[in-house]
Amino acid sequence: MVDWQLRLIVDRGVPEAPRLTPAGERILTAASTLFYAQGIRTVGVDAIADAAEVTKKTLYDRFGSKDRLIAAYLEQRNREWHAFLDAQLADRRPSTPAEVILALFEALTDWLAGSRNGCGFINASVELAAPDHPAMPVIVGQKQWLRSEFEAQARAARLADPPELADRLLLLHEGALVSYRVAAMERAPEVAARAAADLLASWPRARRSDG
């Protein structure tokens, strides 16, 4: 029997954290806190520099521009998200591909605990309308990875039409995030997890000839 415990299939493509000076670390920490709590566009470099106890010149020396700092914030958040998923899988110990999918849903409840601000990537995508913004590849990549992981797990479970199932699972997952943030639907992650479980239980299995 294949051991599916802790296994995520798709390459996550998450770069290692950059080596920053102590000042650079303070800037990134301050920016991450302020961007998530108050919004990217409403937070200026003056506020970030003040919170990090550095000058604006130091901020620009370390990151080049506010846009690059935004990208660094989302890259760091993506690393934190994947580290969180690894910890969640270690705790939940899924033993089948379907259980891995459900663990990805169940992780949302703990990830969102204590915050009403929802998904930092969705929030950023709303604020950063320009498709060529340096942060957009991070945002798009994070969502594309999750859909690809759903598809890979569905394929491993020998469920029919993995791409279609992955699309539906992603809509449930992301819909829960938006509903939690915008509609103040506090139990949206739990509802989405139950809906995903129902979907997986009723989804047809692939025929042997489907490969």
Chain-wise SSE layout:
Blueprint: H1 22-38, H2 45-52, H3 56-63, H4 66-92, H5 97-112, H6 120-127, H7 136-156, H8 162-182, H9 188-202
Helix pairs in contact: 1-2, 1-4, 4-5, 4-7, 5-7, 5-9, 6-7, 7-8, 8-9
Could you explain the architecture of this structure?
By secondary structure, the protein is an all-alpha fold. It has helices at residues 22-38, 45-52, 56-63, 66-92, 97-112, 120-127, 136-156, 162-182, 188-202. It contains nine helices and no strands. The chain is elongated and about 60 Å long.
Outline type = elongated
Strand count, sense and barrel status of the largest sheet are: none
Helix content: 55-70%
Order of helices and strands: HHHHHHHHH
Mean pLDDT: 92
> Structural class of the helix and strand makeup?
mainly alpha
Query: Number of helix segments?
Result: 9
N- to C-terminal separation?
19 Å
Compute the gyration radius: what is it?
Answer: 19 Å
- In percent, how much strand structure appears in the residues? under 5%
**Low-confidence region ranges:** none
